[in-house]
Amino acid sequence: METNLPNLEYKGYKCILEYDSETNTYSGKICPPSNPTEPLENWEFHCCHQQKLQKIFEMQVTKIIPWESFQKKNKEWLSVTDYESIRTVFNILPDEFRKRVENNEFDKTLLQSVKGGDYEVPLYYVTKAYDVLFKGPLETIAYKIGLDEDDDCTEEEFNSYIEDKGITRNGIEACIDNNKMKTLWKELFNIDIDAIDIDFRQFNMHLPPNFEREFSIYYFNDGVNGVEDWIYFGITNPESEGVTFDQVSCLMELLALICLERDCDFMYF
Q1: Which residue has the higher pLDDT, 154 or 226?
Q2: What pTM value is reported for the model?
């Protein structure tokens, strides 16, 4: 092991650095200011050049700071929010949704707004958003929720895709479940999803009017500031437990982009 390892520190974060002489590589584990001897999980980095260690370390810290802020804010939100009800709608779980409502476990303030995101909308907007998503062309985003629109896809290819991706519900099945959700909104709250006219383009709040392709790809694949693949994860994996404070508003923005792209008759991603 190399004895003269540099002392890496940036914005209060420190690094436990090791050197592997066999591979001539450095590995670093990052410790937060609150616990300078206990590394954070999933933030280890590797480098072959000592001169680049500080730069890579600083880049990692720059990512960690907003991520930790995101986690803290989400933890606070979960402590005061009926996130289980939000999950039943976001993950399209009609049976669980009905059960929560009938057992008086559903927070009815969600009918006015889901608090926590950049802006607030009623929870049933989620069901409407999925309805718009499923009933329009999926085109190049179809791979995120299955190969349902691919006429050339064989049953063998489809089953292989489902297995490789770990998908437990495909797009057609999710659409059927969302139709059940629409029925329940009408039955339980007299809310007719089909009669609601929402222009989702109004939620194009974080994107500039003439955004470039590179920007949209960056935005919708940023796990902290944008909409990553987890937006689709509740569709394909309804048993998932993850719920975040900005999940609903992120879905609204995703629908804004999809609607804008459908207007232009092409897809960005």
Answers
A1: 154
A2: 0.81
CB 216 within 8 A of CB 253: no
Cβ proximity of 124 and 114 under 8 Å: no
- Beta-strand pair 9-10/25-31: unpaired
Q: What phi, psi does 16 have (nearest 5°)?
A: -90, 110
Q: How confident is residue 187, by pLDDT bands cut at 50, 70 and 90?
A: very high
CA distance 134 to 73: 31
Helix, strand or coil, per DSSP, at residue 189: helix
Helix (H, G, I), strand (E, B) or coil at 177: helix
Please name the helix (run of DSSP H) or strand (run of DSSP E) that holds residue 69, with its range, or none. helix 53-79
Each residue's pLDDT tens digit, 48-65: 988 899 999 999 999 898
110: its two tokens: 């969600």
Q: What is the CA radius of gyration of the chain?
A: 22
Residue 260 clears pLDDT 90, i.e. is over it: no
Three-state DSSP class for 121? coil
| Residues 53, 152: Cα–Cα separation, whole Å | 48
Average pLDDT over residues 31-57: 92
Strand partners, 29: 16
Q: Which is nearest to 85 in space by CA: 72, 58, 104?
A: 104
By the 8 A CB rule, do 84 and 100 touch?
A: yes
* Region label for 104, one of left (φ > 0), alpha (ψ between -120 and 50) or beta (otherwise): left
